[in-house]
Structures are given as C-alpha cells and as structure tokens.
Amino acid sequence: MKMAGPWIVTFLCGFLGATLVQADLRPPAVLNLGPEVIKEHLTQALKNNHATAILHELPLLSAMRDRSGSIPMLDSLVQSFLRYIIWMKVTSANILQLAVQPSAYDQELVVRIPLDMVSGLNTPLVKTMVQFQMNTEIQALIRVEKSKSGPAHLNLSDCSSSSHTLRLSLLNKLSFMVNSLANKVMNILVPALPQMVKNHLCPVIQQAFNDMYNDFLRLATAPIPLSPGALDFGLLSPAIQDSNIVFNLKAKLLDSQARVTKWFNSSVASQMETTPRGAPFSLLVRQDLVNAIVDTLVPKEELVILLRFVIPEVARQLQADINEINAEAANKLGPTQMVKIATYSSPQIVLNEGGATAAQNIILEVFPTNTDVRPFFSLGIETNYEARFFTEGDRLMLNFNNISIDRIKLMISNIKLFNPESMKGTLTKILEYTLLPNENGKLRTGIPMSLVKALGYEKSVWSVTKGALKLTPDSS
Known about the structure:
The structure is a single chain. 32% of the residues lie in helices and 38% in strands. It is an alpha+beta fold.
C-alpha cells in the first residue's frame, strides 16, 4: 500500500520545501594548490628526471674551448692553458630550494630554481685539481595557455639562466700564475655556463613540469567511489591565482552500472578563495554537489516501526497524546501499534559560515495495529538536523544530530481534527530513535578521499564556508 496519494505529496512539497542557498556560478569543485605543494612536487619530478645527473654531464670543457675560439683577443697563455686541460667536469651538483612566486602579470607564476655546483679540472701544469664553485639560478614562467582544439592548460616557458645570477669562485688557492689563469678560465665560463644550462637542463625542467602537471590532473580528476556508484571529476579550466595553481572542476554522478545520473557543470569560473591562511592546498565542493552525494548515500525510503517493540516508552507517550484527542481511538492501539515514516526527500544540506544543517520532508502515519490499512492520521513534517562533517582516517564522514521539527501539518485524520503541535515532543522522539539512526547507519562507512595522502599529507580537516565544503591539511 502506498502511504499517501499524489495530492498529499504535492501539497506536502508545496507546504514544506526546504530552503536552500541559491546555486551560484562557482565551479562544482575547486582544487587549489599552494606554492608549497608546487615546490615539493616539482622538486620530486626533477629528481625523477635525473636533473642533477644532467648537471654532472654538462660539457664544460668543449663549451669553454668553443667560447675561447670566438674571442680572438683572448690571452694566448689562456688559450694554451685550455689546450692542456685533460679533464674538466662538474664533480658535485645540487638543486637548492625552489621558489614559486606570483608574476607581475595576471595568470602567470615565476619559478626560480637555484643551482649549486662544483667543477674540477686537471692539467699537467698543476699537480692538484683546480676546483670552482658555481652558483646560478634558472627562471621559468608558468602560464595559462588557451588552445583552439581543446581546453586551456598550464605550460612552462621562458626557461633561462642569466649571467647576472651566476657567481663563480676558486676553491683552492694555488700559485699566482695558476690563480690568474683560473680566473681567466672563470671569465670564459661566465657567458658559457648559462647557455649550457639552458640547452641541457631546461628540457629536463620542461619534462618535470609536464610530469607534475599531469600528476596534479590525475589527482584532481580521480573518481571517488560511493556506495553505490561513484563521483567522477573532469577539468573545466586551470587557472593561476596569486601563487597558486587552481583546477576548476566539473563533476558527474554515476550509478552502480557506471551510468551518468547527474551532471554538474559551470561555464563561468568565478574567483574562489586561495588556500586559507597559507594552507598547502584546499579542495572546495559546492553545496549542490554535496547534496547530490548525500542523496546517493541516503535515498528516499519508507520505514515501518512497531513502536511498542522498538521504543515502548515513546509508544506509551504517543498513546497518551492520542487519548487527549480521542479516547476511543487510543484504546484501539494494540501491541503491534505501527508507525510508517516516508522520506519524500533526502536530507538537504545547507552550508553556512556557522556550520551545516540539513532539512528533510517526511510523511508520518500512525496505525493502531500492523494489520490495519487505514491510518489514524497522516502528518506532513519538515525536520531540521545538525550536520557534522569530519575526517576519520582518509575518509570524509557525515553525521546527523539534534533533530527538530520546524513545521508540522495534519494531512489526514480519521479520528478527529486536532492540532499536531500538541504531540510535537513525542514525534520528535520517534524520529530521533528511528529515522536518525537509520540515516546515520547509511553514512557510517564514509567517503574515501585519497587526495590528501597523494599530496603528501597524513591528516586533513573539513570545514564549512557559505555554499561550499572545504578540505585542508590538518596542521595540529
């Protein structure tokens, strides 16, 4: 038997209708990566691409000889000295801490990569190795580039090393003549080294950036399993905001057969907040997407409760309430006294700065026994919960607490017309002991969020902003 006819459902929805924040033009989800994350992952990508090994292989000697041949006025003694160098290479190389900074131009980041190298040379003219300390800096730009054939993407360009950032010094002091020759050798290195670094290391930096960017894209668009179905992300557009890389994301919900049940898109990507208080990253999920996830996990359903077997003290309280309305009806309540609760909407989440709440529309019917097909009465109820988002391990958890009844309407009464406000306390207890545990039970497994550990962080925290749910690393 259906609990209520179509006209009752229509009237209920018109009477209740949970109030939600209007949809905005923000993307359904936004992954915001701060400079700390960019530096760490680009540094790792440079290691994976063996950047320091490339520095060890810089052709210092051939570059210096080529350079010296292009300077006819170069001291003949120095040219002779270069011919006697039998071995010269980088003996140690380190990539120091990267810096990621906003550019003077919109949608552009400056990446600075400092290099610390030591080179050595051997010549029959000197018994010991002559060593040079070399410090320089590579600068590259990250820009948003539009494409005619596809979506915009981030690109690294203008990779270069300037002689203005180059510093060379002689590590060991030898004879006056050798020191003088070594200084002249360093003078040749000053214009030669930046070009060598550009030719040999910049392609590696470009590949490392591409690897990092693709890794970020995979993390941003990785599907999130739900039960049932999944949440699937796609890239709307990348952006650069301050020192951050931003991925504006679209989303779709899939059922257990991988069929799309709902799309979330936005052609307008408004400026979302940067990672808060210098947090390494943040993930923001728009309110309507949060509600769609909850709708998947907590679908509409009908509950049947034999009240005296489940919560006998509340059954007695309900009988007392009905006795005040109609004593004859109260006497008909048997041991199998039954309550049916039909949820005509999933809990609808409202996200505000002060926290999250959930509203839900239900119809509640009271039957004297489980064999009766005609209820004593039917009530349309709008409930309100406290919604608490938190992290447990690597999972997003949601729990409902403190249920209350905001509005209540008598839909049908077969005992006598009455004001349902008189039994509001009893009805609240029925919902607290039945509906709330049922919905929290569906949410108890949580939603896996692999993003946090993939970005290198162990703990995370969820917080609520107006119209969005926000994930950041836990700094405590």
